[in-house]
Amino acid sequence: MTDCLFCKIIRGEIPAKKVHEDEHTFAFEDISPQAPTHVLIVPKKHIRGLKEAVQEDAELIGHLQLAAAKIGRQRGIEEGYRTVLNVGPKSGQSVFHLHLHLLGGRDLLWPPG
Ligand code: 5GP
Ligand code: ZN
After folding, report:
1. How many domains would you assign to the chain?
2. Ligand 1 test: best mutation among 47, 94, 100, 102, most atoms within 8 Å of CB?
3. What is the pLDDT of residues 7-61, one digit of tens each?
4. 24-33, long-range: CB within 8 Å, 24+ apart, which pairs?
5. Is residue 26 part of a domain?
């Protein structure tokens, strides 16, 4: 999508610190990290958010989670990390290109608030 921040990052039009890339996913450091590890993992396909995802996106969404597990392993944060999808404005979703947050490297509170 032309006018989407994360599509622009995927295309390299806006700089970001790339963490991982494969055929279907792209991962980069969050610009405003909320934990020592805060990586955003996004599908290369523009999907507005989880509630707009359809059945054919199921494998892709699983792929995002497995990419998070791989990064968690590489970062040595397997004692505790969290993957989060914010869905809709009341959850704090501010960028409307589906993205999985990977947060770790510190104690994480529950419930998250
Ligand atoms: P949301 O609140 O939509 O779940 O998450 C959006 C995330 O994108 C936020 O954590 C925010 O810090 C991050 N973000 C917003 N703009 C940029 C940017 O230009 N570059 C990077 N790397 N992250 C961004
Ligand atoms: Zn997009």
Report:
1. 1
2. 94
3. 999 999 999 999 999 999 999 999 999 999 999 999 999 999 999 999 999 999 9
4. 24/60, 24/63, 25/60, 25/63, 25/64, 25/67, 27/67, 27/71, 27/102, 30/101
5. yes
104 alpha carbon to ligand 2 midpoint, in Å? 25
Domain contains 110? no
Taking the model in full, what pTM does it have?
0.98
Whether 38 is catalytic: no
- From atom 18 of ligand 1, which residue's Cα is the shortest distance away? 31
Question: In CATH, what number is assigned to the domain containing residue 69?
Answer: 3.30.428.10
